[in-house]
Design brief:
The protein contains 9 helices and 7 strands. The protein is of the alpha/beta class. The chain is globular.
């Protein structure tokens, strides 16, 4: 259960090496979170992330999780919930893909779609059911501004995030009144320190403007959104107005915009 300060005491990060996921875990540990599960493919990076969070005072466990292996999700994630209540699940996995390659290699495009959408739907439903069974908890879904309107530069990635966003909104409505809170997070382009950004900067508009964000800024917005029980969080907040305007630009004009 959440503590007296409203912070979750236990967190499950799906996408255990995600920079946004780890930045969020660090902030939550500073806010009294004590148990962190990092779910991801076995790798030195996953173990390194777990070691670092343990150094911050959290009890950290890793679990083998593959977004593409949907047949294993119910068993793998179900075992985590048998260990004790999970106050928050952060669905943070996803791949940006490579638009040019993916257009020429349909199987590569399918991998983007299956990871970002199909895998997320599977894991999201399993976790939502477990949260509902325990009677409380938050499911935070990392969407993207790229899903707000299809763009020539990244429509494969963007379409996968658009589907995920719509799914998460509908799931939030389905769980309303059950004690389970669903929050959709829509970051702009993320300036990541890792080898690849959560959202590929080269294919997203506004990359040289204040609308570019960082993993830590997204994490801060997630923590604030949890406290407020927000349903949708834009990072940075100004993106809400920007994307509201862009959604209504006629397609012939939109095609000519430098976005």
């Amino acid at each position: 259960m959440k503590d007296a300060f409203g912070a979750p005491q236990s967190v499950l990060v799906l996408g255990g090496t995600s920079e946004i996921g780890l930045a969020t875990a660090r902030r939550l540990i500073a806010c009294r979170t004590r148990t962190v599960w990092l779910a991801g493919r076995p790798s030195p990076a996953l173990e390194s992330a777990a070691t670092e969070l343990r150094g911050r005072g959290a009890y950290v466990r890793t679990v083998d999780f593959d977004a593409l292996d949907t047949e294993s999700h119910e068993t793998t994630l179900g075992k985590i919930f048998t260990e004790g209540d999970i106050d928050m699940v952060l669905l943070a996995f996803g791949i940006p893909g490579d638009q040019e390659r993916d257009e020429e290699e349909p199987l590569s495009a399918v991998r983007v779609a299956q990871t970002n959408y199909t895998g997320a739907v599977s894991a999201g439903l399993v976790c939502a059911g477990a949260l509902q069974a325990q009677g409380h908890g938050s499911l935070v879904v990392l969407s993207s501004v790229a899903g707000e309107r299809a763009r020539r530069a990244d429509f494969i990635y963007g379409s996968s995030k658009a589907g995920l966003d719509a799914f998460a909104q509908g799931l939030g409505d389905a769980l309303h009144g059950t004690g389970v809170h669903v929050m959709v997070v829509r970051p702009g382009p993320v300036r990541s320190a890792g080898a690849a950004a959560e959202v590929p900067l080269a294919t997203i508009p506004f990359t040289r403007t204040p609308l570019v964000t960082t993993p830590d800024a997204v994490a801060a917005a997630i923590v604030t959104g949890l406290r407020r029980r927000s349903e949708t969080v834009w990072v940075p907040g100004a993106l809400r107005a920007v994307m509201s305007a862009l959604r209504h630009v006629p397609r012939p004009l939109f095609r000519r915009l430098p976005v």
